[in-house]
Design a protein that fits this description.
- The protein has 7 helices and 11 strands.
- A hairpin with a 2-residue loop joins β1 and β2.
- By secondary structure, it is of the alpha+beta class.
Length: 272
């Protein structure tokens, strides 16, 4: 039986959350780390029966499930690192306001020390945010009052973008040939990394309810333009490191004089 007397509640020591469809598992002491925050109030001043739950009994919050990982990081550790080219700083600040974390919100609202935020809220370098607590008694070069911008660590990884397409070449390679009809662009990577790069343009219906630290090969994009996907990857600091393609040829009909139809499958591997 979990020890709950120290928290004055009947919540278990290990708590499962469903935040906007994303599942998180964390300790009760993490959720109650910041006094007077919304999570502190929910999990120390309420009972489990008072909180909404999903169909599997997990405590449900109708908020941004991807950005909640940064809220948890802030509650767990003495600092928080945002990925390089992080573009949702303002949205994360909104989440901090909702969860009543004023110190986190204040630091997210502050401009970078080395460069100004871009118009869409992106940061060219990874920002380290201060601890949610104020109980430090010593001053070090990494103290909350002297944070510096550093290169990313946990934001590194690989994303493979694939597509199956077709194109038609007319008889004698006519000029009116139709090129590259892309049926669907697939995304294979760690789930958290894919969501960071593609955000709401990512279709998760084939592989829902997976935690950000898991991998998937079943996501695909809501658009069919490869260049649009490449632009998002470039903006997130990714570079293409490999690609491969296979193709087959067939005729549109049994008549060899008809147009030739080529089908292909191509993958591009990006790294950061």
């Amino acid at each position: 039986m979990a020890d709950t007397e120290s928290h004055g509640s009947t919540f278990p020591d290990i708590v499962e959350l469903n935040v906007g469809g994303q599942v998180y598992v964390t300790r009760l002491e993490t959720l109650t780390a910041v006094p007077d925050s919304l999570l502190w109030a929910k999990f120390s001043q309420s009972s489990p029966d008072e909180l909404p739950k999903d169909g599997k009994g997990r405590f449900f919050f109708d908020r941004d499930g991807f950005l909640f990982r940064y809220i948890l990081d802030y509650l767990r550790d003495s600092e928080l690192f945002l990925p390089e080219f992080f573009k949702e700083r303002r949205r994360l600040q909104k989440e901090a306001d909702f969860f009543r974390l004023p110190e986190l919100s204040r630091r997210l609202a502050a401009p970078s020390k080395e460069t100004s935020p871009t118009e869409d809220g992106g940061e060219p370098e990874e920002a380290e945010l201060a601890s949610p607590t104020t109980t430090t008694t010593t001053t070090t070069p990494s103290s909350s009052s002297d944070r510096t911008l550093r290169s990313p660590g946990s934001g590194a990884g690989y994303i493979t973008v694939g597509y199956r397409g077709s194109y038609t070449i007319g008889r004698d390679i006519q000029a009116d040939a139709k090129f590259r009809r892309v049926a669907r662009i697939t995304v294979c990577s760690k789930i958290g990394l894919a969501k960071e790069v593609f955000g709401e343009t990512l279709n998760e219906s084939r592989d829902p309810d997976r935690t950000p630290d898991k991998y998937t090969s079943r996501y695909y994009l809501k658009y069919n333009f490869l260049e649009q996907a490449f632009d998002r990857l470039a903006e997130a600091g990714f570079h293409m490191v490999a690609c491969n393609s296979t193709g087959t040829c067939s005729y549109a009909s049994s008549d060899p004089g008809e147009d030739k139809v080529w089908t292909s499958y191509t993958e591009y591997v990006f790294s950061r």
